[in-house]
UniProtKB/TrEMBL annotation:
All copies of domain G-protein coupled receptors family 2 profile, residue ranges: 29-155
Domain of life according to the entry: Eukaryota
Cellular localization per UniProt: Membrane
GO cellular component: membrane
The protein's name in its UniProt record: G-protein coupled receptors family 2 profile 2 domain-containing protein
Keyword terms: Membrane, Transmembrane, Transmembrane helix
Entry's transmembrane regions: 30-53, 65-83, 98-118, 138-160, 172-197, 209-226, 246-269
Biological process annotations from GO: cell surface receptor signaling pathway
Coiled-coil spans in chain: none
Major location category of this protein: membrane
Membrane topology: Multi-pass membrane protein
MF (Gene Ontology): transmembrane signaling receptor activity
Length: 297
């Protein structure tokens, strides 16, 4: 089986559009995905505007990591959308174009997984660790997180081109040895962080509690989506079936809207960010609030 000539190259992330151009489902997924991508791009623009306008917000290391995490996410859904859109209308592409699709999609997918892991690790450290620990310079973290996926993509591409009869095997090794271990480690960080938040008995008056809880759940949900997509993808490669493609369509559309909601919730679910946009001066904590914060530390 050739993955490049079959479905993986045109679909390492998910199938957005079915091959039946006249079907109602295909048109519906086209409209739904297009609207979701537009909303995600608008949300991302608002994220960048927040970083540009408010120095206090962009100087936070967590927000700096968040920006790069969301850049990787927008790259991923945009590249996948463009390629799947083209494949929907131009089913027969030159092999070199398919390899280019493969490189772009694998790189953006793995870069997104790595940035999700880095961001989840930062959330876990801030919620679980009692004492502050030394952190690597941001430029080193950023450089490594963007370059490691490039190395993985190059290695996978070389493996595919050298032994075209074992493409499915290399694809499974990519999932089992590279992608899923990162997703599992990410899930462990998120579960540990959730447990820390729940067990800390934080007061409802704390502004960041709800957003942290929802954000952890959102990222965990994204990890679950990726795992389901990979499982459906394997089934789709082995057994070409309409219903598998249909479920991939549904999960993909959910993922696109999930991206937009995650960005908007991180921005405007946070009371401090809303105050920045309303140009309100932050209120100083009362003595009772200070005492409470010291007690939970």
């Amino acid at each position: 089986m050739s993955i490049i000539n079959n479905q993986y190259c045109s679909d390492p992330g998910a199938v957005i559009f079915g091959k039946n151009e006249n079907s109602t489902v295909s048109v519906s997924t086209l409209i739904g995905s297009s609207v979701g991508l537009l909303i995600s791009i608008i949300a991302f623009i608002m994220l960048i505007m927040t970083a540009v306008l408010f120095k206090e917000w962009r100087e936070s290391r967590k927000n700096q990591l968040l920006i790069q995490f969301m850049i990787a996410r927008i790259f991923y859904i945009t590249v996948r959308y463009i390629i799947d859109f083209r494949n929907h209308f131009y089913a027969h592409e030159a092999r070199c174009v398919l390899y280019l699709d493969f490189i772009c999609l694998v790189y953006t997918e793995y870069a997104l997984i790595c940035w999700m892991f880095i961001f989840s690790m930062k959330l876990n450290d801030s919620l679980v660790k009692v004492f502050n620990t030394s952190e690597s310079p941001l430029w080193k973290v950023s450089l490594g997180t963007w370059l490691i996926p490039a190395f993985v993509t190059a290695l996978l591409w070389i493996s595919f081109t050298m032994q075209t009869d074992r493409e499915l095997l290399f694809f499974l090794l990519y999932l089992l040895l590279l992608k899923w271990p990162v997703l599992c480690a990410n899930a462990i960080f998120l579960i540990t962080a959730l447990n820390a938040v729940i067990r800390s008995n934080i007061s409802k008056s704390e502004n960041n509690v709800k957003i942290v809880l929802v954000m952890l759940i959102l990222i965990f949900g994204f990890s679950l989506q990726q795992t389901l997509i990979d499982i459906y993808k394997i089934v789709h490669l082995l057994i070409i079936d309409y219903y598998v493609t249909f479920y991939l369509n549904i999960i993909n559309i959910i993922m696109i809207y999930h991206c937009a909601f995650s960005i908007l919730f991180w921005l405007f679910g946070n009371a401090k960010t809303r105050k920045l946009w309303r140009r309100e001066k932050p209120k100083l904590p009362t003595s009772s609030e200070l005492n409470f914060r010291m007690s939970i530390q």
